Amino acid sequence: MATNAANWNPGKITDKYPGVPYEEKLRLFAEVKADARYEDYLYGCYECGICVSACPSARFYDYSPRVIAQTMAREDVNRMYEILVEDIWNCAQCFSCVRCPRQNSPGGLVTLIREIAVRNGIKETRDVLQGYSRVIYKVMLKGNQVSPDMLQPDFFPDWGPWVRSFQGNMNLWRQAIPVDSLRGVTDAAWKTDDQTLRELYTIWFETGNIDLIAEIDEGLYELLLDVMEEALEDWA
Ligand code: SF4
Ligand code: SF4
Fold this sequence. Notes:
globular; 14 helices; 2 domains; binds iron/sulfur cluster; Fumarate Reductase Iron-sulfur Protein, Chain B, domain 2; mainly alpha
């Protein structure tokens, strides 16, 4: 690439977040670029827009995978910070954008930026993920997905009025899940066996995923840590 993030500062022209020092944005940009996957996700950009036409999020949000790829290719540090604050959680991580003729993966770039946002405890990321703390709790602890009793407005504020219609038709949704889960308030959509949970908890610890939770929600982190450590000790 012709430009270099260390000596190019377009933010002096457009900087939506002037309160955040350029050096801090540059540090975050460098963290994204330092990821071993980065070079596989970006080879330059033709600006053809094929990724945009394939992207479901681009249809419903003010969001563009082309902008993600272009921003990174141009090493626009300020724009990447803007994307980190405003756009990354609009991506559905469906990877329809891999049909890029340049072999870019805008969705992969979003994954990297998300990880950096979480690892650095960026306030806007914490705010976005707060509404999903019960989902994170469920998936990490139960090895399971959202159960029907979780479909309540408080847990999914960004679903708007739709979540009320889900909640109002709970019995209907329950018909789509296993019979065991139909009794009373469900604990999980299905039961995960102890061996699988042991492996799952080990993965969270070994990959450092459990530490990422500490950056976004300390209370949730303590809760998960207590339960997982005790369970691993019992199973040892
Ligand atoms: S990322 Fe790929 S598909 Fe999207 S505009 Fe650039 S070259 Fe085209
Ligand atoms: S992975 Fe993200 S950027 Fe790529 S097509 Fe899906 S929603 Fe769009």
